[in-house]
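Q: Give me the 3D complex with flavin-adenine dinucleotide.
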Amino acid sequence: MSTPIIVIGAGICGVSTAIWLQRCGRKVLLIDKGAPGMGASYGNAGLLAHWAVDPVTSPGLWKEAAKYLLHPNGPLFIKWSHVPRLLPWLVRFMANATDADTQRIVQNLDPLLYDTVAQHKALVADTNLARWVADSKFSYAYPTTDAFKADAYSWKIKESVGLVPTLISGREVQEAEPILGSSVQCLAVLEGQGHITDPGQYVAQLCKYFTDHGGKFIQAEVLDITMKNGRVSSVETIDQTFECSHAVITAGIWSKDLMNKLGVSISLETERGYHILFENPSELPRNPMVITSGRFGVTPMEMGLRCAGTVELADHHAGPSKGPIKLLKRQAMAAFPNLQYTGIQEWMGFRPTPPDSTPLIGEIDSTGIYTAFGHQHIGLTAGPKTGRLIAQLIDGQTPNVNMAPYSPERFA
Ligand SMILES: Cc1cc2nc3c(=O)[nH]c(=O)nc-3n(C[C@H](O)[C@H](O)[C@H](O)COP(=O)(O)OP(=O)(O)OC[C@H]3O[C@@H](n4cnc5c(N)ncnc54)[C@H](O)[C@@H]3O)c2cc1C
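A: Here is the predicted complex, encoded as structure tokens.
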């Protein structure tokens, strides 16, 4: 019996890695402390977001952050008691808010994002899961055409990677998307995008596909990774030791704890985010969109209408706050004034964000330990490709992507 590869964390990055390794003929053990797909991968906006190639840290961030914090409808929240611990990361994060850094980050992110819909379709090829991957258009919903024009920097970035919108304004907005009220007067529409119609179920079913095809899933918390002669030898849970040939850390924000145990210095904090899901909505948008005034994504899903967004800088051990949920409800009702529904579900999740917005994908110093985490706002989008890249690396193939920017050792 060959020694397995252990993948730690069954979010979109973990299940994608496990499936692509399995397709390379490898024996894989996937371990998660909870049920698969219940981390950040559960409650995101479901958007396959090539257009999120321009990072949060674009050059206007300093001014924008101050504006959002002062404005009662600003989608940015900070738990001030967390700031002293956050400071080293925050300083590095804000230092990336220059044009040169933005251009560099876009070059890093685009290879992970540009073919996202095709990567999801490749992941579900030969499965019965294709129904979760929807082709769609994606709209930026602006209050006015001037607000679209004021977003010129962000559109210049998007256009540099081939994303050119079609503009709709005036009455045509409500003809295109009848759910929208008069607070939206301009849509910038991107063709050829996609979304996932229930991200949590999608990841759970991908995990089931993996186990149905011979993979093993165990529910247990990984406490440590053990090395022998400079190479990984086993993974420890509370009551078992699992020998392995390689280990892949795909534990989202919690990857930080495992990296600390390995003594590898990284910089990773969470941008907490929230969703509300309107149950049995009287209307759904025809396609997903972002309401730019509140910076939240709106996605028609199998379970209802999901509105997801806001950024809260706070500890991932602390409980949810009320402010972001109230704001989402207020802004959703302003955007969709005629919406009726029977109930609202609420959720909080943790975007794992490195200060340079670039995921950590690669091997740690020839140890046989690989990382695939740090996907900030784009983990659902880039998860399948990330898993494929890790499988190629472990399988001795040379990926068709320059992996240098994703080095997990770049913070050392
Ligand atoms: C409000 C919101 C909206 C978003 N919208 C989008 C979007 O529209 N499109 C997009 O692309 N991205 C979006 N994102 C980001 C995306 O959800 C994340 O980047 C992505 O889910 C991260 O996936 P992951 O597999 O790295 O981590 P996770 O999904 O968090 O999975 C990590 C897993 O590791 C497990 N784990 C942790 N520690 C251990 C341990 N010690 N032992 C065993 N298991 C462990 C956890 O239980 C968890 O299941 C959004 C995020 C939020 C919060």
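A quick observation: The domain at 48-107+134-195+268-353 is CATH 3.30.9.10 (D-Amino Acid Oxidase; Chain A, domain 2).
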